Amino acid sequence: MTELFAVRMDVALPAEMDPAERADLLAREKAYSQQWQRSGHWRSIWRCVGEYANLSVFEVESNAQLHDILWGLPLFPYMTMTVTPLAVHPSDIAAR
Ligand SMILES: O=C(O)C[C@H]1C=CC(=O)O1
Fold it and tell me: What is the pTM (predicted TM-score) of this model?
């Protein structure tokens, strides 16, 4: 049994961050995110237009697994997260 969550991640990197450190951080973030996307647990990621933020959907075994995935993000110290548990909508024609 798995559960779905929508997670909005707002990123705020310090303006004074060293460019090389920033590039390394973003490269590690991308690799980590893509690893979880390949696993099937990070089902989708969308850029929020005009914002340094994304809206992602996760399919996980437990709250604890989602917490561990989010906590492990290299950008975690620079992000504010909003987590919304999802349930099947009664009007969804593709209800799973
Ligand atoms: O750019 C972002 O939205 C932040 C972050 C989340 C995953 C990733 O690859 O980058």
Answer: 0.95
